[in-house]
């Protein structure tokens, strides 16, 4: 709702392609979830945590945030003020990401081994991708109705997003919790209201400062931001490479390793050493095609001449069936095959999904052909996603499941999302150079996904360093 659907909504309101690309940077927020993930490992949500526990309490707060943000996006769906649109899109991204952090930590705690993670990751992605399909196709089908429009679409999805909350409330008490259900619910709702208001005010203030700073240095819709984005992509690797030698020498009593804020992240580099850089390079490229296609595939399809209803139908049962099959096969592969083989097959099918958009651009407008391209994309991304989730989960130290998975999964999408935000500018630059902009863009994104396979000979040998107490023994 803050990526593909929003890009079509902005396109319908005649927002330029470059600005639509800038909105993809809202998706950067999940990349930085490691900044607040330790808080979810350490603290309970006031009220909710007293009955439902840490993980479910954060999920309930996140659901309230998601519903609130979706409702606000629905009530401002005319996009007359893009700053307001961006504010609520960022809030939706924040609460969606917080929900993912809590749910991922819960999943890793429930299933710490490869054999257990395969089916659980598949089940998790079945629900996740089913929700994406339902929201994406459902919103487009509703938005295409004159009596509903974009406001009706966002409000309908907000109503659907509220439905899990009563199910969570009905769950039994978490062990070792003593509060009564009604008391915990009332206290949690009061605390959640205060947290949501404070988060909205803080986000608006930070956004106002950032937009003012960008305007002050001359960044606009006409700015070629690609060189700056590529430079930013290199910074994390340079910083980590510089810090790595010192991290490897840290004793267990060091403040950095014991810190609740940075300890989980220091632990990852301490355990894997130099090969951690190769691991992070691999994960940051592996899902490149999926992320780059996410923001611009729908504007391209719309530009080819397909209606919102046709796109919605393709994104409904066609995408859902293809995604379910792909996720199921990916989960089976991840549980039973060697990791390198499963990762290779997943990357190949994900790249084929991107190449499918190149093929579609050269075909006559035919809804059946749109179904084929959509099915290939969703099947490949579902398969690669399931394999990838299991792989990341097994890299995590069970002592820090929420924080380390948030760091790895967030970093995995840093480079793709940075480039995705410049995607509109890249397409327009290719068009001006006499190339078919969308064609070459999706061709390059598929090739970049395949480039991750070059790291497999290195990362397949990665083994974590023994903990201090194990090494001493």
UniProtKB/TrEMBL annotation:
Q: Which key words are in the record?
A: Membrane, Transmembrane, Transmembrane helix, Transport
Q: Which GO terms describe its cellular component?
A: membrane
Question: Whose protein is this, by species?
Answer: Allosphingosinicella deserti
Q: What protein is this chain from?
A: Permease
Q: Which InterPro entries match?
A: AmpG_permease/AT-1 (IPR004752), MFS_trans_sf (IPR036259)
Q: Which residues cross the membrane?
A: 15-36, 57-76, 82-102, 123-142, 148-171, 183-208, 228-247, 268-289, 316-335, 342-362, 368-393, 405-426, 438-459
User: According to Swiss-Prot or TrEMBL, what is its membrane topology?
Assistant: Multi-pass membrane protein
Q: Does the keyword Translocase apply?
A: no
Q: Where in the cell is it found?
A: Membrane
């Amino acid at each position: 709702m803050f990526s593909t659907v929003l890009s079509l909504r902005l396109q319908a309101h005649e927002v330029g392609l470059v600005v639509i690309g800038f909105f993809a940077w809202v998706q950067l927020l999940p990349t930085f979830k490691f900044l607040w993930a330790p808080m979810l490992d350490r603290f309970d949500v006031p009220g909710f945590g007293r009955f439902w526990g840490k993980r479910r309490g954060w999920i309930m707060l996140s659901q309230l945030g998601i519903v609130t943000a979706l409702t606000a996006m629905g009530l401002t769906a005319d996009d007359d003020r893009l700053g307001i649109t961006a504010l609520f899109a960022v809030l939706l991204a924040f609460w969606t990401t917080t929900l993912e952090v809590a749910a991922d930590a819960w999943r890793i705690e429930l299933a710490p081994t490869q054999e257990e993670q395969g089916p659980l990751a598949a089940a998790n992605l079945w629900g996740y991708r089913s929700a994406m399909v339902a929201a994406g196709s459902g919103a487009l089908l509703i938005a295409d109705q004159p009596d509903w429009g974009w406001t009706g679409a966002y409000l309908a999805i907000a109503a659907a997003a509220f439905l899990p909350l009563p199910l969570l409330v009905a769950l039994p008490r978490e062990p070792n919790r003593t509060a009564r259900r009604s008391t915990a619910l009332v206290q949690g709702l009061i605390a959640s209201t205060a947290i949501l208001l404070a988060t909205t005010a803080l986000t608006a203030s930070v956004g106002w400062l950032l937009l003012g700073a960008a305007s002050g240095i001359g960044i606009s819709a006409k700015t070629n931001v690609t060189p700056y984005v590529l430079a930013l992509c290199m910074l994390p690797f340079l910083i980590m490479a510089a810090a790595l030698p010192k991290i490897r020498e840290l004793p267990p009593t060091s403040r950095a390793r014991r810190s609740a804020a940075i300890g989980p992240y220091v632990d990852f580099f301490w355990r894997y050493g130099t090969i951690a850089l190769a691991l992070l390079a691999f994960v940051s490229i592996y899902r490149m095609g999926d992320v780059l296609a996410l923001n611009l595939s729908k504007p391209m399809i719309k530009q080819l001449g397909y209606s919102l209803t046709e796109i919605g139908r393709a994104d409904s049962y066609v995408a859902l069936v293809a995604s379910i099959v792909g996720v199921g096969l990916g989960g089976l592969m991840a549980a039973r095959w060697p990791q390198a083989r499963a990762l290779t097959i997943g990357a190949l099918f994900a790249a084929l999904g991107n190449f499918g958009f190149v093929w579609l651009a050269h075909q006559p407008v035919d809804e059946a052909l749109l179904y084929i391209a959509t099915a290939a994309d969703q099947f490949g991304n579902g398969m690669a996603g399931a394999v990838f989730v299991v792989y990341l989960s097994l890299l995590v130290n069970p002592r820090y499941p929420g924080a380390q998975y948030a760091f790895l999964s967030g970093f995995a999408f840093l480079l793709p999302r940075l480039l995705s935000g410049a995607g509109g500018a890249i397409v327009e630059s290719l068009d001006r150079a006499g190339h078919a902009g969308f064609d070459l863009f999706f061709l390059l994104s598929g090739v970049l996904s395949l480039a991750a396979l070059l790291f497999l000979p290195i990362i397949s040998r990665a083994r974590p360093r023994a903990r201090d107490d194990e090494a001493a023994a």
